Amino acid sequence: MSSSPPGPIPNLLFVEIGFGVDQHGQNAVKAAVRAVKDAISFNSVPAVSKLVPGGRDGMRVHVRLAVPRGYVAAVEG
Questions:
Q1: Are 40 and 16 in contact (CB under 8 A)?
Q2: Residue 13 in contact with residue 48, Cβ under 8 Å?
């Protein structure tokens, strides 16, 4: 896990928080994917094609996860 903070985000459009869990499989990656989907699922940014160079295909998602210590290796690997 990187200890240095990420660099500046050039065109920050919005910030969302999501929650994800895999209760039965205890799969940290599956839980992380669910958290990202939860965070972006109810957003509507119709002007993103005008705001982001390259439109929707040029859009990138920056994700920062909070993971319990025992599951960090499962997410990194």
A1: yes
A2: yes
Say if CB 64 and CB 75 are below 8 A apart. Answer: no
Is the model's pLDDT at 3 over the cut of 60?
Answer: no
The structure tokens 């295909």 sit at 57
Pairwise pLDDT comparison (26 vs 18), residue with the higher score: 18
Distance CA(47)–CA(26), nearest Å, equals 38
- CB burial of 2-37 (b: ≥16 within 10 Å; e: otherwise) equals eeeeeeeeeeeeeeeebebeeeeeeebeebbebbee
Helices (H), 1-77: 28-40, 48-51, 72-76
Q: How far apart are CA 45 and CA 34, in angstroms?
A: 20
pTM: 0.58
